[in-house]
Amino acid sequence: MMRSCFSLSALLVFVALPAQAAPPKDLSADMVVLSDGRTMDTSKIFVSGARSRMESSRMGGFTSIVRRDRGVVWMLYAARKQYTERPLDAKTAAQDPASEPPGLLSKEKIGVDSVGVHPCTVYRMKVAAPGGRQLTTTACVSESLGLSLRSEVAGIVSELRNIQLGPQPANLFEIPSGYQLTTAPVRPGIPVPLKMPRRQ
């Protein structure tokens, strides 16, 4: 239960804005996940239009790159110089700053607040969880930045801090040179097969 709430809370930082809102601005930020006021994880995110990147130290360390302009999600594993590729669908879209959280059942505006110097609108949402359960969560969404700045579910809080507006380097949203495509999810300490080029 705690693990699923942790993951969902992190993803809810990327809750979508109303349809008429502007797309996310180019920025970088730290995404901090807390429980009972204690920091559980800190990730780095980068956003540039239809492209986004999140660098996490969880599960041995990985980077996710979402390319809405190409309809794909890449997961990079620096220790092995490998990556996986998946189509941008209902599940993988959860890693995209412009996507609704997976299993969103309802979304209701309940007030206004601010995170740091950024004003935001607070929404209450109901989200489907494994086992047929429903979770109620809140998200503080900045229409001007195009992102949710803080979310909370089951006592797990995710918040964007140290937000820096400005253009982001294009190479952040590309697969680094020397990485090889693998067909299996990468887990720390477990070797995985590489997808080798077909023989001509």
SS-derived structural category: mainly beta
Distance between the termini: 49 Å
- Low-pLDDT runs of 5+ residues are 1-12, 15-21, 188-200
Helix count, per DSSP? 1
The SSE string, one letter per element, is: HEEEEEEEEEEEE
Strand order of the largest sheet: 7-8-9-10-11-1-2-3-4-5-6-12
Q: Give a count of the beta strands, DSSP E runs of length 2 or more.
A: 12
Shape: globular
Name the CATH class: Mainly Beta
User: What does the largest sheet look like?
Assistant: 12 strands, mixed
Q: What's the CATH architecture name?
A: Clam
Task: Explain this structure.
The chain is mainly β. The protein has a twelve-stranded mixed β-sheet with strand order 7-8-9-10-11-1-2-3-4-5-6-12, covered by helices on one side. 32% of the residues are buried.
Quick overview of this protein structure:
By secondary structure, the chain is mainly β.
